[in-house]
């Protein structure tokens, strides 16, 4: 995902837990990250209009409140909140949602399905790595969770925007410390060090390093003229051209610790890039946020502890555990045993494996999830909730945040003809997949924006499941079963040799949902004379195949920030870049023109019209079979207080546990 802030693709987007500047790969599962990034954006169109008005309508300045020094009062049994839960931290982002009666201590344990092996969120464009990064790092500013128009300060003390909306001056808080660490290469103990403007300059220099695979980031900053350091706590970002996401992108800039990632001043840019991609330092995270990375045990999980010199309000838990549990059924067992405290449920688990009275549904209706969760939280505070349950269940909409798809490698001659791609979509029974695999928890998609996005053209309907029409399109494209073996064939190279219509669908081995719906698709493809093989792969292998374009088709998801910019995934300039997000190598000149025009169009109504035109092109071309935008399904221990669905989704950082119920 200057005074106000917001989110993306969803999925994605949403609550910006991290300084996300792009879209991130997700596995098709209801993982904790997906849910944390979930949000309800029914008012997105009006938010966009207001954001653009604020970004371009004159000089603005934002001042954060006075925040305690990192050496002082934040590390007490209870923060000096006064009577409203804010106190000394009234100027800190979302402090209004902290509760003065909260008790501190204990641990929170969550699960993730898999880690890729690289925890460097700069070079690893995936959701789980980004989530790990976010636990250890803060942003310059984040959106208010109930008032998404408002950006509120974290690392930034204040910021100013010029009248033309092109120059942003950022004033950093003083006393923000990078976590101390033992260098994994030199084994030297490195003490805590103050974060400064130079750490943002270092990030900027890193993004500009062409030897690093950062095209998914660079596309968002292509119109930045320069980032300059004014003094130790002030830096300036100057945009050369208007960009509708310039506010979000500027406040989403990441601080990067030079003393960790480039400790040797003798490295040239090539050596630094090589180290950045492969160094053992990528097995560790150094941050400036409330939790310090302690250890990563491969195959088990990651442990974080509270950073006692944190500059902001004290986090409620003293420890966070991320356990690596690939099997969702095992994760549910661990939840019931107390091994983890919260779990993203699959639709089947929600319906069949988490029933009353052990599990209490807090939000029975998605449309009223915000209100229902608040009422329940208030009942818990007053001691009026029943005692005959152990876990709470929350459902809330992620349709504008995350979405799943099947992507076709357009470098493969099988998929060169759009009639073939349309036929493949018509052979994908999305209504059945939604009903039988997702139990109705989602919305079928027709194009590259989710149904809740203003850029989604409501006049464009998803291609219906129509095997007969699909067969007709395949015949038009030259595919016939001339040898009567049940498989279509065609001379693709013009050399007189017919090739069977046979390909592999790459899926993440940990995704049970992908296994289920790919089996449904496989059966329907076979009936139409297409040999589709299912190819389960480990997540890290899958990422490498995508980056190298070494696959036929894949099924994955995207997640991101509040306002969607399609450039990263769809612009033709990204098609031939080895590790770009346009991994299907989509190229369309008219689509490129609309993307470029939409990026510089600040008027939200005009931009909506432009991006809807782009949407119609991609729908017609079908480089993806767009599957669905899922609903977020989450369950957690009833030990937690102040659990709420916000406008920007759920956020466990405001949840706390009474001392008598804390787990150490």
List keywords for this structure.
664 residues, alpha+beta, 27% helix
Weakly predicted, low-confidence segments: 1-21, 29-60, 62-87
Rg from Cα: 25 Å
From the N-terminal CA to the C-terminal CA, the straight-line distance is 34 Å
- Strand content range: 15-25%
Total E-strand runs:
32
Largest sheet: 6 strands, mixed
**Helix content, binned percent:** 25-40%
Structural class: alpha+beta
The average pLDDT score comes to 87
Shape: globular
What's the tally of helices?
Answer: 19
Describe this structure in words.
α12 (418-426) packs antiparallel against α14 (467-476) and α18 (589-599) runs antiparallel to α19 (604-621). The protein is an alpha+beta fold and 664 residues long. The protein has 19 helices and 32 strands. Strands 1, 20, 24, 25, 26 and 27 form a 6-stranded mixed β-sheet that branches.
Blueprint of the fold:
Layout: E1 24-26, H1 32-36, H2 44-56, E2 60-63, E3 107-112, H3 127-136, E4 141-143, E5 151-153, E6 156-161, E7 167-172, E8 177-178, E9 181-182, E10 189-190, E11 193-194, H4 197-208, H5 215-218, E12 224-231, E13 234-239, H6 246-251, H7 258-261, H8 269-278, E14 291-297, E15 301-306, E16 319-324, H9 328-337, E17 342-344, H10 347-352, E18 359-361, H11 369-381, E19 391-397, E20 403-408, H12 418-426, H13 430-437, E21 442-444, H14 467-476, E22 489-490, E23 499-500, E24 502-508, H15 512-527, E25 531-537, H16 539-547, E26 553-559, H17 567-570, H18 589-599, H19 604-621, E27 624-626, E28 628-637, E29 640-641, E30 645-646, E31 649-650, E32 656-657
Parallel strand pairs: 3-16, 18-19, 24-25, 24-26
Antiparallel strand pairs: 1-26, 2-6, 4-5, 6-7, 7-13, 8-11, 9-10, 12-13, 14-15, 15-16, 17-28, 19-28, 20-26, 20-27, 21-28, 22-23, 29-32, 30-31
């Amino acid at each position: 995902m200057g005074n106000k802030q917001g989110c993306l693709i969803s999925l994605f987007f949403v609550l910006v837990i991290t300084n996300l500047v792009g879209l991130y790969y997700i596995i098709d599962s209801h993982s904790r990250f997906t849910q944390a990034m979930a949000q309800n954006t029914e008012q997105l169109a009006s938010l966009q209009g207001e954001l653009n008005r604020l970004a371009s309508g004159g000089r603005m300045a934002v001042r954060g409140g006075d925040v305690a020094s990192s050496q002082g009062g934040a590390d007490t049994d209870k923060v000096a909140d006064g009577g409203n839960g804010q106190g000394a931290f009234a100027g800190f982002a979302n402090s209004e949602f902290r509760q003065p009666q909260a008790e501190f201590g204990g641990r929170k344990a969550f699960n993730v399905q898999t880690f890729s092996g690289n925890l460097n969120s700069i070079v690893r464009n995936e959701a789980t790595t980004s989530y790990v990064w976010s636990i250890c790092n803060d942003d310059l500013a984040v959106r208010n969770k109930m008032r998404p128009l408002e950006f509120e300060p974290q690392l930034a003390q204040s910021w100013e925007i010029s009248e033309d909306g092109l120059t942003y001056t950022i004033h950093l808080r003083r006393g923000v410390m990078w976590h101390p660490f033992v260098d994994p290469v030199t084994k030297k103990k490195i003490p805590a060090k103050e974060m400064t403007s130079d750490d943002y300059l270092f990030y900027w220099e890193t993004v500009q390093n062409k030897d690093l695979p950062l095209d998914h980031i660079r596309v968002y900053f292509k119109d930045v003229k320069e980032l300059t350091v004014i003094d130790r706590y002030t830096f300036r970002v100057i945009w050369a051209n208007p960009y509708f996401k310039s506010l979000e992108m500027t406040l989403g800039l990441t601080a990067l610790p030079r003393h960790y990632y480039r400790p040797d001043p003798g490295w040239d840019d090539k050596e630094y890039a090589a180290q950045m991609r492969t160094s053992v330092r990528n097995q560790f995270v150094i941050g400036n946020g409330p939790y310090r990375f302690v250890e990563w045990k491969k195959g088990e999980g990651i442990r974080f502890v509270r950073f006692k010199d944190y500059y902001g309000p004290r986090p409620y838990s003293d420890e966070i555990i991320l356990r690596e549990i690939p099997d969702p059924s095992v994760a549910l067992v661990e939840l019931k045993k107390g091994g983890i405290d919260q779990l993203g449920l699959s639709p089947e688990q929600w319906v069949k494996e988490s029933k009353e009275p052990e599990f209490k549904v807090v939000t029975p209706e998605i449309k009223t999830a915000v209100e229902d969760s608040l009422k329940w939280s208030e009942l818990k505070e007053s001691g009026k909730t029943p005692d005959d349950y152990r876990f709470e269940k929350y459902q809330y909409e992620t349709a504008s945040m995350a979405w799943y798809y099947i992507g076709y490698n357009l470098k493969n001659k099988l998929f060169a003809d759009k009639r073939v791609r349309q036929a493949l979509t018509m052979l994908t029974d999305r209504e059945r997949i939604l009903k039988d695999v997702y139990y109705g928890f989602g919305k079928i998609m027709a194009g590259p924006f989710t149904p809740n996005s203003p850029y989604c053209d409501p006049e464009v309907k998803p291609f219906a499941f129509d095997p007969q029409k699909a067969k007709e399109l395949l015949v038009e494209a030259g595919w016939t079963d001339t040898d009567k073996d049940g498989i279509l064939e065609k001379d693709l190279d013009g050399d007189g040799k017919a090739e069977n219509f046979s390909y592999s669908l790459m899926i993440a081995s940990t995704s049970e949902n992908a296994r289920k719906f790919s089996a449904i698709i496989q059966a329907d493809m076979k009936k139409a004379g297409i040999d589709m093989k299912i190819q389960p792969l480990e997540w890290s292998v899958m990422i490498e195949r995508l980056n190298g374009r070494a696959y036929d088709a894949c099924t994955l998801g995207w997640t991101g920030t509040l306002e969607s910019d399609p450039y990263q995934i769809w612009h033709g300039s990204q098609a031939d870049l080895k590790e770009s997000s346009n991994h299907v190598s989509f190229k369309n000149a008219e689509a490129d023109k609309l993307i470029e025009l939409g990026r510089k169009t600040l008027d939200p109504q005009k931009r909506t019209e432009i991006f809807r035109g782009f949407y119609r092109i991609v729908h017609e071309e079908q480089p993806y079979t767009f599957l669905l935008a899922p609903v977020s399904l989450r369950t957690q221990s009833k030990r937690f207080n102040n659990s709420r669905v916000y406008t920007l989704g759920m956020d466990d950082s405001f949840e706390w546990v009474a001392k008598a119920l804390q787990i150490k």
